[in-house]
Amino acid sequence: MNRYKKTFSKLKKENKIAFIPFWMIGDPTPIKSLKMLRILAESADILEVGFPFSDPLADGPIIQESVNKALKSRTTIKECFKIISQIRDEYPEKPIGALIYFNLILSFGVEDFFKQLKVSGIDSIIIPEVPPEEINSKIESKFSLLELSKKYDVSLVFLPSTNTLDTRLEKIIDISSGFIYAISSPTTTGGKIDFSEGIGKLITKIKNKTSIPICVGFGVSSPEDIKELKIMGVDGVIIASKIIKIYRKNGEKGVKEFVEKCKKVT
Q: Comparing C-alpha atoms, which of 40, 35, 50 is closest to residue 20?
């Protein structure tokens, strides 16, 4: 069993869902981001990390600011992998997912990037601007992303939302592994969301078609949100912007207290 299967299986037996905090590597510096990841890892069931990119289209202003701080600190892709490797050594059983935009992968070299994902101990990757319809397209005249993900045992994670067409949702379900990242509302990250009937219907629709775990993000910002989504039947929740906001206002201590509260209600 891989790390995702082990984690979700264990949580299901305990009647819990996965708490998945996110942090942008390099914010505010590579060293301080490593410290933040260690703080998050103590409460997290799964970690999500971001590779800073200058044009993060899926992200709202809070994560965009986090990206800018990481870029200002001159965080490179190689430094991102180095930090992830350190976290992997310290938390060998904890799944780690990465969010990265495709231009960074191209600049590194596509297959070399997937090799490094494997070497660093990354379990999954989200590439927000690559649609599922393109996942079988050959890149650099050699492999497709789907082939590379299988070759290097890295799960591809996609982000269906409440307005995703059924045909695309079927495709996402067919090629997903690790988990499916369901977007609570078709918007950018960080906005305040009233969880609508739509997300409940999306969760039910996916669960009727697959046993792959469903995790919800975008707008999840409190223990109360976690409780609400747990009742809806999700397998995990992702929190990003709220953690960054707390860090800006109350520092590491504030983040530690917040994530501990979140973990208690899962």
A: 40
- Supply angle C-alpha 202, 188, 73, rounded to 5: 135
- Single pTM value for the model: 0.93
**Which residue in 27, 45, 59, 65 is the catalytic one?**
59
Distance CA 105, CA 128 (A): 12
> pLDDT tens-digit profile of 235-258?
999 999 999 999 999 999 999 999
Residue in 14, 42, 45, 48 annotated catalytic? 48
Tokens of 263: 């973990």
pLDDT of residue 190: 46
- CA end-to-end distance (rounded Å), the chain: 23
What is the CB-side half-sphere exposure of residue 177 using CA atoms within 13 A? 15
Q: Is 153 a catalytic residue?
A: no
CATH topology of domain 3-264: TIM Barrel (3.20.20)
Mark whether 65 is an active-site residue.
no
Give the start-to-end residue ranges of the domains of the chain. 3-264
